[in-house]
Write the structure tokens for this entry.
Amino acid sequence: MALQDILDRIAAAMAGTTDRGTVATYIPELARIDPGQFGIAVALDDGRVLSAGDAAVPFSIQSVSKVFMLAIALGRLGDGLWTRVGREPSGQAFNSILQLEMEKGHPRNPFINAGAIVVTDAVLAGRMPREVLAELLGFLRAASGDPGIHINEAVARSETATGFLNVALANFMRAHGNMQNPPERSLGVYFHQCAVEMTCVQLALAGRFLAGLPVSPPMLSQARVRRINALMMMCGHYDASGEFAYRVGLPGKSGVGGGILAVAPGRASVAVWSPGLNSRGSSKLGTEAMERLARETGWSVFGGAS
Amino acid sequence: MALQDILDRIAAAMAGTTDRGTVATYIPELARIDPGQFGIAVALDDGRVLSAGDAAVPFSIQSVSKVFMLAIALGRLGDGLWTRVGREPSGQAFNSILQLEMEKGHPRNPFINAGAIVVTDAVLAGRMPREVLAELLGFLRAASGDPGIHINEAVARSETATGFLNVALANFMRAHGNMQNPPERSLGVYFHQCAVEMTCVQLALAGRFLAGLPVSPPMLSQARVRRINALMMMCGHYDASGEFAYRVGLPGKSGVGGGILAVAPGRASVAVWSPGLNSRGSSKLGTEAMERLARETGWSVFGGAS
Amino acid sequence: MALQDILDRIAAAMAGTTDRGTVATYIPELARIDPGQFGIAVALDDGRVLSAGDAAVPFSIQSVSKVFMLAIALGRLGDGLWTRVGREPSGQAFNSILQLEMEKGHPRNPFINAGAIVVTDAVLAGRMPREVLAELLGFLRAASGDPGIHINEAVARSETATGFLNVALANFMRAHGNMQNPPERSLGVYFHQCAVEMTCVQLALAGRFLAGLPVSPPMLSQARVRRINALMMMCGHYDASGEFAYRVGLPGKSGVGGGILAVAPGRASVAVWSPGLNSRGSSKLGTEAMERLARETGWSVFGGAS
Amino acid sequence: MALQDILDRIAAAMAGTTDRGTVATYIPELARIDPGQFGIAVALDDGRVLSAGDAAVPFSIQSVSKVFMLAIALGRLGDGLWTRVGREPSGQAFNSILQLEMEKGHPRNPFINAGAIVVTDAVLAGRMPREVLAELLGFLRAASGDPGIHINEAVARSETATGFLNVALANFMRAHGNMQNPPERSLGVYFHQCAVEMTCVQLALAGRFLAGLPVSPPMLSQARVRRINALMMMCGHYDASGEFAYRVGLPGKSGVGGGILAVAPGRASVAVWSPGLNSRGSSKLGTEAMERLARETGWSVFGGAS
């Protein structure tokens, strides 16, 4: 079947699904999103971008931003970053502080909240918060080739007003000497990076460098890209990363805004979005769509179609 | 460079390495192995098997056996197995009982000891232990095409005499209702499966079905193979699985005997062996050899060579 | 009010209570006990023993036996015992293995199961199990002045057949080098000591040495008695020890057989029994009776009546 | 021996001790204190106050303040307080966040930092911070009969500037809905209450109501006093509470300023101070002095002298 047909069928199937998960409510601005939406976009190695459903509707990328901030951090600091954050799955929920105590303020990986806050703190490095946010937007615009990507200030304010757990994580790491900047400054950047808005098409385009597609602008060495992909595979969905690997078999990163970015190395960059979440905090329909796409294309990195 | 040359260079480099890690001492029979050995073998999709170093020396496969017992369990029970064991990285050491208590006797995945004991218990299912061991040897001999694979009884006795932690794990799960057979019976099988001896060549041949190589005898559906590969990627090296994914980028499984099996889907099945272990309980030189092989072949599932 | 009147009223109130908790079911022999029973006995400093209710009915003392085995261990080993077991509340349930892993097989205190198994193992010290059990019975008979105390073999067998969690704890400690004897031997003694049967009157008499009553036979130095009392206060009721201190204010030890021994230093030794347990594994009516007795006598060590 | 002689000998012995522990350094203002100081004071039931050493030197009471704020909270809220904080030993360090996560923001007891912050938050209840601090000083002045007790503002500022772990704890509980006031407001009060300065004489006088001495002004019902004493016994020294009960046998509360308040119900209120801490964060010489005093007076609640 042609890929466009696969995408159309997936979008049609999702449109007919009634059990769509639950929209995240702990960030008030996100709680208002209409759960009836679904979009998917695939950027291919020949430069084409196929899409279906609400692939042109902007959504809050939330934790998907952690991938891009990590790319910036690796570009700036190289392997020095790994003195401050680990590279192992945490076996705990995304916002767990337990592991952080047992390991003295050293987060297990860059995709749990604590680890992502450390990455942002490392990129900030005494600069002005707005400088770092400009760098992030610049990176996203360059990677996607789309200058229209921006931050939703209302969402950023909403996160700042309710992010007590992240304040706890940052201060806990500060107490253990693992924050360079005042916690509230790094958190300010972090809350804004989560509030970046992108469409599925923009996100799929921005992910091309992770898939190693020749049509992507050069963003990072291939050695580093491989490592970011490894981290997405191992830790991209918190304590449901094993499940995503088992069902989909592609490196990916989810966000509580309902977006997921996944990468089929050498083949494609895929973005899906549907706001309703499953019990583990990832898009319910988005995960199902990814599973179906991987099965029908045979793109799993763990072996071809039967 | 030709693959045989790559293997020869790796074997030569390893022969010249003085920091070879530490041979496992908690199983007395393993403590006597000469740490100066190193072997590597690669089974390719065209039927060739290339090797270098001590690739024809039998060693104790230990936890690598968990992969084959899992394959047998999935063949026998299908997805019913997953009611008794999870599919997520544990974030803990291979023999941790902590997670088991927090999750009421349900092990996080089939590759930590507790999970592997449950898998063996599920395959045993009231049968005679020797029947299950015959089934395992039959599977290994069929997959490798080599009838010479056997169990080292001295090693099995040694494990039985010192495996107090595994006795603790099995009884803990029994107390939580997650053992079907008397703990000592399932442990009897488990201690024997760990004592299977294979050479690198035999192990690489036996792993061909996981790489989906057409030259492999049919052992399991491709859908199940993909899932075993996903589990090896996520959990194959305990709390160093992230590190292996980051450095090597191939699904793999290590054992305290110093063996590692890794799979490049569609391309090759690789076995390395060197008895000295790193601080995480995996072969030190074996891991380094895998990293170098993946880098020089571009076989990482996370993206090609730069 | 005279003490006998207080006891009579308590017994009458308990007889009229319908919510009597739940009889322990995990030891089949205990599950058959009639939950309608309640007894209380108080041994005073003038030699009198007052009682009410079913104070002459024998019951399984279970974990209350840990106090007496600890007394024997301190008499035999002195402070050397504390290299193998701690003296702090565990903050966990009585059978938790989590703390044991975090502290490498060193149990937090002698009253959680793991700690009590270590104490028994230390008393066993290579001797025959029946020798140690004879020593325990001798101690109890001497302390109470009653030669009729014995072990219920059916209960001991029942515990042996179902004690998987204790088998796990003992083997876990063995793996960490904190068992001197083969786990099954020390467990054999442990399962039998829990199966000692006593009446409330016998138990109150046996506890006189802990209250420092002059009418007690000399069993242990007063310095050691104070320390056992401190341990009972801090750890005698597992993760409900704080609650017992808060409500009752006396050092005490409960057992899943429904018995509780408590001590008012210099004044009295008190035993209550009622088989129904609260959610924390202590006798529901027994705890209520202790609270009422302490309030009406002003015996709390934390301050007199208002 | 007369009590004054006992105190003089203890002070003399402490003056001659060279191993005095380590002054807390994480609060810069405390790090400057001369570790050579030692004071002890005992308030008796006949109104006398005996003392020795530096008993008239003011020191930072730190966590000892938690006892008085708890007394105020119980007076204001009664048992309603216990919906927000538990009454069990935590089995963890004073500043652990691990237990807080496992129990969803409900601290184990009012004497670990998280619990004390909740108590302060409950007393604050929307009022102005300075009102609550005035209430605390009023309570301390009334209980001790000494109007000279005050807060050291430099210490309070020092704590505010470095208390990242407490900021983490408060925000973590806020995220779980267990803070009534903005975290920074309750923390403001908390940092100031820890900075109260008192001498040993003042502290012993202020503690008389806990000992139930008739010479104390009436501060709280005897039933509540018993319960505060029970909590001090069980949780007054964090994960060294068992050790204090075992060695001293009196309800007590330590602070990182080197002060300890202990209570012999019906007999005396005792305060000691020496700035050097042991590995568990309590005054090293203070603990030794308490142990010696309890032994020589026979005041242990767990039984008289041998």
